[in-house]
Every structure is written in C-alpha cells, then in structure tokens.
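User: Before I run my own analysis I want an independent prediction to cross-check against. Here's the chain; please return only the structure tokens and, at the end, one sentence I can use as a sanity check.
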Amino acid sequence: MQGLNNVLATFFDVHLIAETLPDLLRIGLPNTLILSVIGTFFSCVIGLFCSFGLMSKRFLVRLPFRIYVDIFRGAPHILSIFLIGAGLPMAGLMVFGHWTYGYAGLAVGVVEGAYMAEIFRSGFQDVDKGVVEAARSLGISLWKTTRLVVIPIGIRTVLPALTGQSIIIIRSTALVYLLGLTIGQRELFSIGHDGTINSANFSPLVASGIVYLLITIPLTYIVNAWERRLHNGPKIRLGAAEGG
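Assistant: Structure tokens:
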C-alpha cells in the first residue's frame, strides 16, 4: 500500500497537476500548436520537393534525395533536431535571425520531411497511369499534367497519411526544448519538464502528457474515420450504381 501511495504521490500529485495546467494551457498549448504549424509547413514543402527527386529515373538525381530520406529516417530525432536547430545559428547561418521558432520549426520540418517525402511519393506513384496518358494525349505538357492531374489526385489519396504524420509532428515538438526557448516560448514538454525539475516530482510532466493526449487522441480517431470513409466511399458508390 505504501508503494502505491509513493507512485501516486510521484506521478499523480493533484495539487502539482492543477498548479501546472494554467501554464500548459496559456503558454504551452499555443506554442506547441504554432511550432506544429511551422514544422508541418516545412515538412510538406521539403517532402513534396524531395518526392519528385525520389521518383526520378536518373540515378544521380535520385541518389541525394534517397540519402537525405535514409539519414533522417534512421537518425534519432533528438540528435537531428539539436544539430539543425542549434547548429545552424552556431555555424553563423542565421537564416531566421534571432527567431528561435524558425529554427525549431525548420528542425522539425527537415526531420519529418523525410517521412512526408515517402508519403507523397507513394501517392503520386499510385495515380492511374491511364489518367496521365489521357492528359498527355490531349497535348497537355508533362509539367501541366503533373501540376493539374498527378499532384491533386496523389495528394487526395494520401491525405489521411499526411494528416497522421502531422499528428506525429505535434509530438515531435517536445524535442525542441533542447534549443533553449525563452520562458514565453516554452511548449508543453518544456513547461512540464521545468515543473518536474523544480518540484522533484513527475506530476508536471504527467500533466503535459495529458494535454498532449487531449490533442492527439481525438485527432487520431478523426483521421482513422476519415481514412475509412475515403476507403469505403468508392465501394458504396459502385454498389449504388450497380443497383440503379
């Protein structure tokens, strides 16, 4: 019984959780969402660009993109984010000036862009070749066919996967605490981490975990339902057509 009380006191101190929640909701939640949006933007741009490199028929064109994807999918995220987010300013590459969010978002985006690239690639390669050939037979250039046919159809196919990866990006923002954000810039994990250090108790971190779950679990169920709807939709329409 004493052991259970110690566990509850260490991880589920109601007073500490209640004390941490206002900062989590007032500071941590908005900052986490801002970082997630920035990271998602960079990862989509990088992933979209790299996906076409991965689909190139020329080995020398395809090689650097494959190396990028393999490195950032294989290296620990915490290492990559620290090297990019802290390394660029230290190397004098002040692409965002002193805007810490920019480096943090870019670091998350570069890492997650490797996953986005594979998602985009799979979507574009799944586009029916007959549709592409039909567009080309109408005299539409390859670039216009790609822009007007392949990209819209391919992205629609992988929208649930892209959205699911965006949920992972929300969790990845926890790693940017390494970059030394100011008090007003702290995201959910940083606030929980600081509270745990100051109180010598893990309840503040548990509180931050609860807020993460309140974001990610509903989004996960929404994405799963959306994916099932997209998957089952064509079958339902086909059945209705046959019935008519």
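Sanity check: The domain at 2-243 is CATH 1.10.3720.10 (MetI-like fold).
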